[in-house]
Design goal:
It is a single chain. The chain has 443 residues and is an alpha/beta fold. 37% of the residues lie in helices and 19% in strands. The protein has an eight-stranded mixed β-sheet with strand order 3-4-2-1-7-9-10-8, sandwiched between helices. The chain has a five-stranded antiparallel β-sheet with strand order 12-11-13-15-14. Strands 5-6 form a two-stranded antiparallel ribbon. Helix 2 packs antiparallel against helix 5 and helix 3 packs parallel to helix 5. It is globular and about 75 Å long. It starts with a strand and ends in a 7-residue tail after the last helix. Bound molecules: aspartic acid. The site of aspartic acid (ASP) has 13 residues, from helix 7.
């Protein structure tokens, strides 16, 4: 029997009823030995996450205001979970210690981490699992960077001592013993680190959706779920805006070749999405895995006669945007043309300066700026080495009268990116979806 690591997100542990579902899930499969909880999330859309309330406490205390009213709400949430679950767990010494620490100027990281810490205490008591504090086995270096090597060594050794344990997500400690957190949503990372450390056969990431969908349901009605996706495909889709999992959570498990299963706590029977290593096997040829995209890009198109034979032209061009601290997303090129596709969030108000710089350094014949561009990535291993994919995609867009302003196909052939006007974004995503995803006969 392999070992599974199960991470439960904030919505899976927001209140007592959710804790009951979690216990049923854990008890249903004895290989779920290491459990990583987030802090309690929202119970409804208007509710507040415990982590946000804790950050609020820290900010109030820092500004010399009283944080006790907010802290009372936090205590009340945990208390009611314990009461409703019938747990004889007295958290008051913990609450007192945390309150004192915040009043004495504890860091934001320490304060926020208590959300996971307290939830871990409750979950461990409720499951009858050991509680193991990640401050003793997840480490950051003196620059605040996660120390993978040290963590791996200590964590594997530590957890080998426990048959079953709950390890709170989101935080670890730095060399001076202070608590440090990962970035927001970081319990996903903890889960991945634990999975790697115990050499799990599977990392289960339990949330409130049944995995990834092939497209954004706000754009495409009832998109099909993605049952299986490779790390590479996921990387491409996530980069373009598809999110369910923290980006950095992928690396530890990917390296260790451990699959991730995104599952739904509210619908545990649904298989969810399985994220696997690319084993080189070609999927159904011609199929796609998903579509994702984002609005808000600018294209700077540069033309210069004999550009292709001018030594160092690309370097000069890139040096201009580098000087302005701007990174680019894509750089499609023709014989005597080259375009830079830049996110507006990068460009901010620097466009004029960048254009002046390009004119001075590159001496182009013409520069054209196209604003309000959306990028759409169509991703799938099944697209590689399959003739007709591009034709299908562009026919679908042409049929809807959508003008394509930019095309970029990575050499790996698992991704075709098109740039369309922002106003055509939704229609373009729907067209591509309809072209590639066969309709269910009964719908
Ligand atoms: N509780 C933390 C947050 O809200 C970490 C997590 O949930 O993964 O960001």
């Amino acid at each position: 029997m392999g070992t599974k690591v199960a991470k439960f997100g904030g919505s899976s542990l927001s209140e007592a009823t959710q804790f009951r579902k979690v216990r049923a899930i854990v008890e249903e499969d004895a290989s779920r030995r290491y459990i990583v909880p987030s802090a309690p999330g929202k119970r409804d859309p208007k509710d507040e996450k415990i982590t946000d309330l804790l950050y609020k406490c820290h900010a109030l205390a820092k500004d010399g205001h009283s944080f006790l009213e907010v802290f009372a709400r936090i205590k009340e949430r945990y208390q009611s979970i314990c009461t409703e679950l019938g747990l004889a767990l007295d958290l008051s010494p913990e609450f007192d210690a945390i309150e004192k620490a915040i009043a004495a100027g504890a860091s934001a990281d320490y304060t926020a981490s208590r959300g996971e810490y307290l939830n871990g205490k409750i979950l461990a008591a409720y499951l009858g699992y050991a509680f193991v504090d990640p401050a003793t086995m997840i480490f950051f270096d003196q620059h605040g960077q996660f120390d993978a090597e040290k963590t791996q060594a200590v964590l594997s050794r530590e957890l080998a001592r426990y048959e079953r344990a709950v390890i709170p997500g989101f935080y670890g400690s730095s060399p001076d013993g202070q608590i440090r957190t990962f970035s927001r949503g970081g319990s996903d990372i903890t889960g991945a680190i634990v999975a790697r450390g115990v050499q799990a056969s599977l990392y289960e990431n339990w949330t409130d959706v049944s995995g990834f969908l092939m497209a954004d349901p706000r754009i495409v009605p009832n998109p099909k779920p993605i049952r299986e996706i490779t790390y590479r495909e996921l990387r491409e889709l996530a980069y373009m805006g598809a999110t369910v999992l923290h980006d950095e959570a992928i690396f530890p498990v990917r390296e260790a070749k451990i699959p991730i299963n995104i599952k739904n706590t509210n619908d545990p029977g649904d298989p969810g999405t399985l994220i696997v290593n690319d084993n080189g096997s070609i999927r159904t040829p011609g199929s796609i895995t998903g579509i994702a995209g984002r609005k808000g890009f600018t294209i700077i198109a540069i033309e210069k006669t004999l550009m292709h034979s001018e030594l160092g032209f690309g370097r000069k061009l890139l040096s201009v945007i580098e000087e302005h601290g701007i990174s680019f997303e894509h750089m499609p090129s023709g014989i005597d043309t080259i375009s830079l596709v830049i996110a507006d969030s990068q460009l901010n108000d620097k466009l004029e300066q960048v254009l002046i710089g390009i004119k001075r350094v590159c001496k182009p014949d013409a520069i054209e700026v196209v604003r309000d561009i959306a990028l759409i990535a169509t991703v799938g291993l099944g697209m590689a080495y399959t003739p007709g994919i591009a034709a299908k995609l562009f026919t679908a867009l042409a049929e809807a009268g959508i003008n394509v302003r930019m095309i970029d196909q990575g050499s790996s052939e698992i991704n075709i990116i098109v740039g369309v006007e922002n106003k055509d974004f939704e229609a373009a995503v729907r067209q591509i979806y309809q072209a590639f995803v066969p309709r269910d006969p009964d719908k």
